[in-house]
Amino acid sequence: MTPTLAQPHLPRAGTIPRGVDRCARARDWAEIQERMLVPLYEAVYERLDVGGGTRLLGLGCGSGLALLMAASRGASVTGVDPSAPERLALARERLLPDTGSDARPQGGTRLVEGGPADVSGPDRPTFNMVTAFQPIGCVAGDSEGLSGLLESTVPLTGRGTPVVLAGWGPPERCATSSVLKVATKLAEPLRSTGSWRPALRDDLEEVAQRAGLKPDGSGRVACPFGYADTDSAVRGLLSTGLFDAAVGATDQVQVDKELTEALHPHKRRDGTVWMPNVFRYLIARTR
């Protein structure tokens, strides 16, 4: 089964409900769900020729798989994430296994619990690539704050630096869209936050333009969500945070039940769960 997915860091889908084991959820993200976006990362890195001369800043780096892949190509990587300490701890295990500090560089790698301002400084070289791999376009308001974050990142780069944004593809090409609608239905009382909405064609371009960036190419990548069984699928999808509002409005048992039912059409005879999806990326450049 080809591994593939999407992750939630920059804008949060909602406040994590009480009683949720944050460390277990972060581990589910890192071990089950995060790998689903590997084809997206690979496509972007190949297109932008990421390698030994790349100084990459990953916004909302989470548990660090995208950074690890860039580092394996020879890039010097820095990751920031202000709101996912449990995921960031897993990124340290992957990228900084011999240090206990989130800010101490090792082989050009830095991981910081904070934002772009926390990795700036007169003695630090500018970044020549920025990624914001958190896919937008499936939850109302999930791009809020992203333009401002990108604006604060521009001073850390040089002119013409590529900034990569990611988003969900058209709902008719994303089988997971039907499953995500469960979250909207269950979270109806809280619909103003975290409700599902279909991706729009110009979502990424609008974010880039608000941030003062110039769009300079885009692409689509097949990122199927594949799971060993229904339990893994439920755990993986819950780890995205996209169902937090639903859990808050109902309860975990109800969400698990309806999510399992929604996954049934995607369950294959061997027990695996398979949902074809398409994700889109935009390359925008600093002016």
- Total of helices: 10
Sheet with the most strands?
7 strands, mixed
Give the termini separation: 42 Å
Order of the strands making up the biggest sheet = 3-2-1-4-5-9-6
**So what's the overall shape?**
globular
Mean pLDDT: 88
Which regions contain 5 or more consecutive residues with pLDDT less than 50?
Answer: 1-14, 101-106
Key structural traits:
single chain; about 20% strand; about 290 residues; 10 helices; two-stranded antiparallel sheet; alpha/beta; disordered N terminus; about 35% helix; 7-stranded mixed beta sheet; 9 strands
Q: What does this 3D model show about the protein?
A:
By secondary structure, the chain is α/β, with parallel strands linked by helices. 33% of the residues lie in helices and 18% in strands. It has ten helices and nine strands. Helix 1 crosses helix 8 (230-238) and helix 6 (176-186) packs antiparallel against helix 10 (252-263). The longest helix has 12 residues, at 22-33. It is globular.
Summarize the structure.
With 287 residues, the protein is α/β, with parallel strands linked by helices.
Task: Tell me the layout of helices and strands.
Blueprint: H1 22-33, H2 38-47, E1 55-59, H3 65-72, E2 76-80, H4 85-95, E3 110-112, E4 129-136, H5 146-153, E5 162-168, H6 176-186, H7 203-210, E6 214-222, E7 225-227, H8 230-238, H9 244-249, H10 252-263, E8 273-275, E9 278-285
Parallel strand pairs: 1-2, 1-4, 2-3, 4-5
Antiparallel strand pairs: 5-9, 6-9, 7-8
Helix pairs in contact: 1-8, 2-3, 5-7, 6-10, 8-10
